[in-house]
Amino acid sequence: MKKPVTTSALIKRLNRYLPKSGMKLFQCKINSRGYRELGDYYIVDTGFNVVSAKYVDIEKFARKEGVLKDYEEVVL
């Protein structure tokens, strides 16, 4: 049985991890102007103030970066 991790907890983990590399994760609201261009989540390079990744799948990204372990699963 895998340990549950909420989406909000995963976002907080990522926002603690990403500043070390000069980046920050943002969530785009559905009714915002940039939603179609950016998707649900996007990453900004804070050094250059540019979007470095659009349409980020936070679970896949967190697993790739080692923020979410194999024994954990994301729940709503």
How would you portray this structure in words?
It contains three helices and five strands. The protein has a domain at 22-68. The protein starts with a strand and ends with a strand. With 76 residues, the protein is α+β, with helices and mostly antiparallel strands. Helix content is 30%, strand content 29%.
List the SSEs and their pairings.
Layout: E1 3-6, H1 7-17, E2 23-27, H2 35-38, E3 41-45, E4 50-53, H3 58-65, E5 72-75
Parallel strand pairs: 1-5
Antiparallel strand pairs: 2-3, 3-4
Overview in brief:
By secondary structure, the protein is of the alpha+beta class. 30% of the residues lie in helices and 29% in strands. It has three helices and five strands.
Give keywords.
about 80 residues, alpha+beta, 3 helices, about 30% strand
Count of individual beta strands: 5
* Rg measurement, Å: 13 Å
Shape: globular
Number of helices: 3
The whole-number mean of residue pLDDT values reads 94
Low-confidence runs:
none
Strand composition percent: 25-35%
How widely separated are the two ends? 17 Å
Q: What summary fits the major beta sheet?
A: 3 strands, antiparallel
Approximate helicity band: 25-40%
Strand order of the largest sheet: 2-3-4
